[in-house]
Amino acid sequence: AQKVTQAQTEISVVEKEDVTLDCVYETRDTTYYLFWYKQPPSGELVFLIRRNSFDEQNEISGRYSWNFQKSTSSFNFTITASQVVDSAVYFCALSRTGAGNMLTFGGGTRLMVKP
Amino acid sequence: NAGVTQTPKFQVLKTGQSMTLQCAQDMNHEYMSWYRQDPGMGLRLIHYSVGAGITDQGEVPNGYNVSRSTTEDFPLRLLSAAPSQTSVYFCASSSGPYAGSPLHFGNGTRLTVT
Questions:
Q1: Which of A57, A68, A70, A108 is deepest in the core (most CB within 10 A)?
Q2: A42-64 average pLDDT score
Q3: Which of B103, B110, B111 should we substitute to test contact with A (largest number of A Cβ atoms within 10 Å)?
Q4: A32: which chain B residues are within 8 Å (Cβ-Cβ)?
Q5: What secondary structure does DSSP assign to B55-72, as a single string?
Q6: What would you report as the CA-atom Rg of chain B, rounded to the nearest whole angstrom?
Q7: Which residue in chain B has the smallest CA separation from A99?
Q8: Rounded to an integer, what distance in angstroms lies between the CA atom of residue B14 and that of residue A9?
Q9: Chain A residues with CB-CB distance to B92 below 8 A
């Protein structure tokens, strides 16, 4: 069975601080995909990034960066110089190849960025 | 640029009532799915469809029915609502039933069953 754990349920930071959201996953598959989604207070779910299990390169997109470490089954998300607009719930998710497009989500981390 | 459209946005039902949550996408996506979001549990897959006429169960299918008569529409039916079905429901689509295709989500339907 697959499982995604986001141990941090809530994080509160002050604007301009860096913050890392942790994601640990469990799977027996050798091929899989990992995702991060953002859910702002308005409630919609916004796709942020996809990483496949064969690509362990870290990725940076502006103030966002992702650290994928297969050895520790982790896919952590860092926001540099956080802003109030980053306040949201962030979900890490795992999908399996050959299983349609079913995602297993973590419980989410609520990030509050205070001015 | 409608994407995935869900109706209604909010709904209150009494226990035992039935209703259909509507979902439509205009991106010609093959794959559609329904998730429910509960506090602390993330999103859990209810049912999914890999194309018109084909549906299958996800992780939490009990109490829900689906059908897929067209590519665009994927309604979710609650036959006899129960308080345990109080949740936020999201419909999602992707271009293919391939793991790795990013899901496009609707804005959700908040359902309360009293």
A1: A108
A2: 90
A3: B103
A4: 99
A5: EEE-SS-TTEEE--SSSS
A6: 13
A7: B99
A8: 32
A9: 45
Residue-wise pLDDT for B29-86, tens only, equals: 999 999 999 988 889 999 999 889 999 999 999 999 999 999 999 999 999 999 999 9
Contact A100 B48 (CB under 8 A): yes
Phi, psi for A84 (deg, rounded to 5): -55, -35
Q: What is the pLDDT of residue B99?
A: 65
Phi and psi for A83 in degrees, rounded to 5? -125, 160
Quote the minimal CA–CA distance from A103 to chain B in Å.
7
Verify whether the Cβ–Cβ distance B107 to A43 is below 8 Å.
yes
What does the DSSP 8-state code read for residue B42?
A: -
pLDDT tens digits, one per residue of A62-109: 999 999 999 999 999 999 999 999 999 999 999 876 656 788 999 999
Distance CA A83, CA B65 (A): 42
Average pLDDT over residues A42-59: 89
